[in-house]
Amino acid sequence: MRAQPLSRRLTGSCLIAAPLLILAGLILTPYPPHTGTRSYQDTLAAHPTQAQIAAIVLEIGYILLVPAVFGLIAHARPAARWLRTTGAVLAVIGSAILPGLLVTDIYDLALAQKLPRGLSVAVADHAGNSLAAVIMSSPAFIGAVLGMTLLIAAAWRAGLAPAWAAPLVLAGSLIARAQSLGPAVIAGVLLLTAYGTVGRRLIQSQPQATNAPLADPAASPA
Questions:
Q1: Which of 104, 154, 162, 221 falls 20 to 30 Å from 168 in CA-CA distance?
Q2: Which DSSP symbol is given to 76?
Q3: Which residue ranges make up each domain of the chain?
Q4: What is the pLDDT of residues 42-58, one digit of tens each?
């Protein structure tokens, strides 16, 4: 069954709005001058309001990817089933888990503000390096990176994305993990370019409504 025009418009709008907010959140994020948990917590403690605003903006951006994912699954049906199915499963898992992980930024901020630095660093490192933390966070990373890349590739096979969109999503998703402003901006621009292009194509390719008058069902043929 053909998707309704609103579905294409909604999917395309989310594909444009999500990376815009992700880019804004990456720019707003306070980045530590050095690597390591101590420098990270020092930066959070020095910019608490900025850190919270950045986390909220990023969360909204990631949440908007959820309807975009389900829309892409529907509109990429002409692609090979294995490509669309694999990308769909991974992207749904990643987009569903990823926003919730941002709450750890608030916990890190609380640790940095309320505990002596040596103790706050020890607690954060212990929690972050635990097996449970790795198991719980890995599906979000794999789904957001690999799943979205495959799903955009499926959109390309369906004629809704240029060939370079999927590689841009992969590159942007990987670069976004860098803890510095320059790479973060580059990552955000790459994601905006890729997702935004697909979103614009979806909006522009939605079926046009006809203004032709409906035939009278009671009229008999001549």
A1: 104
A2: T
A3: 5-204
A4: 999 999 999 999 999 99
Percent of the chain with pLDDT over 90: 59
Q: Is 151 in contact with 142 (CB distance < 8 Å)? A: no
State the pLDDT at residue 2.
Answer: 52
Place of tokens 């032709």: 212
Residue 101 has which token pair? 């992980």
Helix (H, G, I), strand (E, B) or coil at 31: coil
What is the pLDDT, as a whole number, of residue 5? 43
Please tell me the least confidently modeled range out of 36-40, 79-83, 140-144, 169-173: 79-83
Band the pLDDT of 3: cuts 50, 70, 90: very low
153 in Cβ contact with 191 (< 8 Å): no
Distances (CA, A) of 149 to 120, 130, 142, 144, 183: 36, 28, 10, 8, 19
CA distance 86 to 166: 14
Residue type, 143: G
Task: Give the residue from 60, 105, 57, 91 showing the smallest Cα distance to 166.
Answer: 91
CB–CB of 57/30 below 8 Å? no
First CA to last CA distance, the chain: 33
